[in-house]
Structure formats: structure tokens, C-alpha cells
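May I ask you to comment on the folded chain given beneath this request?
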Amino acid sequence: MRLPWWTLTLHSAPVRRTSSVPAGMSNFVPACSTTDAQSMDQLQDFVSRARRLFVISGAGLSTESGIPDYRSEGVGLYARTDRRPMQHAEFVRSAKSRQRYWARNFVGWPQFSSHQPNSAHKALQQWEESGKLHWLVTQNVDALHSKAGQKRLTELHGCAHRVMCLGCGAISAREELQRRFISLNPDWRAQAGAVAPDGDVFLEDEQVLHFRVPSCDECGGILKPEVTFFGDSVIKGTVQFVHDRLAESDAVLVVGSSLQVYSGYRFLLAASDRKMPVAILNIGPTRADHLAGLKVSGRCGEVLSVIQPL
């Protein structure tokens, strides 16, 4: 019996090509052998057959821009430290936790905001321009897809470049808040540690005791990054919007995500229910490997920059 076109097997003949990771930015990219030629051909065939491609991207896409992820073996935040990201409930209930968070974020912001799109972001933007990519959903909050010029985009977990007021809902630019921090803390200094995936750095508690945090200019409410913290839920309207874009698509490609968080994994379950072809490009296993007809192991930029949106 002939298998469906999206059910593909992998072989191991390597293709040698130049690394997509700029020098000095490879510390957060997990070890990975060069993607084999057969897998590249099969992924090219998958993309070529799709007419309205739905893409889900994750932290593995941005590690090649120098931003660490949480879960990668050996190099992710969880592997390198015992630190864990801010929980939504803790941020909301504790002024001291907010002070600590914003002090760390203030120190890390100049570096975090300076990161630039890599070859994978640029390739996906070109796929959009060619009409191949129908919609892109990213779990990342780093704005790199927007910096690359992506328009058909949903930032599922929000964006660290925006700030929201928990009182009145006003949205402002994170860069504007940075100026307010500087004005309120002209003499405050702290020695930064390693940068985390959401843009903050590691500081000792005593370093942040005198850091001053402003309130909302509009209502005096609590300011929070416009991102979904751990323990919080994605807005229902956003989830429904993404489901609608998925329903308009004819194939799903996961790029650089382990899909361990349900907010992204749910769309793979929906694609499976619709019997849509699914391909995954990621270093290491994912939660949805059993739902994919094609699994390719490789660096996102190295692979996507070769695939043509034919």
C-alpha cells in the first residue's frame, strides 16, 4: 500500500554546509549533526506541496540569534542553572517580586533588545512574501519575526517589547519604560549575571532592594510585560484567531519548538483531528513527534535557508 505523501522516512547521508549560527552566538544552540540530504529533500517536497502553510515557531529558532531557551539539553536555562522563570501569580501578588523582576529586566534589556533576526527568520519572511506561508504563530516574545518583516504573524505569548497596565490595560513601548527606569534610578548599579530567555538577568536579592519601579502613567496601576507568564493562560480570542488561521491552511510545519507547553501543542492536536500533514524541524524530541509524518533534526537557519518556497 502506498503511504500518504506526508509520511516520510529518514536516512543519514550528511550534507555539509556552513553553519547558520554567527560566531559567538552558538553557546545556546544544542549540539546537532548536519541534516542529512534525504531529510532535506523530503522537507523540500513537503513545503513544495503545501499551498497555504501554517508555521509554529519556538525558542529553538532564536537560539541562533543568541537568545537562550529553557529546555534544550545541556545549554537551556534549566540545564545551566536552578533558576526558574517568573510565575504570573507571584508577579501579581508580590511587590517585591515585581521589583526583583523589573530590576533584572532593566539590566538585561539593552542586550536582549539588540538581538537581530537570523537566517531562519529571514527565510520565513521570504516564504510569506512568496505566498507560500499563510500564517505564522510564534511562541517567542523576542520580536525577531517582526524585526524580520513578518506580517502574517501571531505572537501567541505576547511580546517583551511591549508593556501593559494590569489596571487600565494601556499598552506602551518597553523602550519608553527603560527611560523611566533610568530617570527613577540614576545612581543604581548592579552586576549582571547570565541573560534569561525572557530578557532579564540574574541578580542577587540584595542588589535590587533600592530599585524603584514606576506605575502606569494613566491610572497608577501595575506595569507588566505584555507577555504570558508561566501559570497564566493565552487570551481566548487569540487562541480562536489562530484556530481560524489553521482551518484556512493545508499543512503545518513546526520550527524550533519542543511543544512541551500546551498553548502551542493544542494546534498540533487540532491539525491531527483535521488530518493535516505535519512536519517538524527541531533539535531533539518534541511532544508532537507521534503526530508528524516528517521529523527533521537540524539547525533552523541552516535548514530553512536552503528550502525554497516553490
Notes: Confidence is low (pLDDT under 50) at residues 1-25, 72-76. Residues 95-114 form the longest helix (20 residues). The beta strands are 53-57, 133-138, 153-155, 158-165, 171-173, 223-227, 251-255, 278-281, 294-296. The two ends are 28 Å apart (CA to CA).
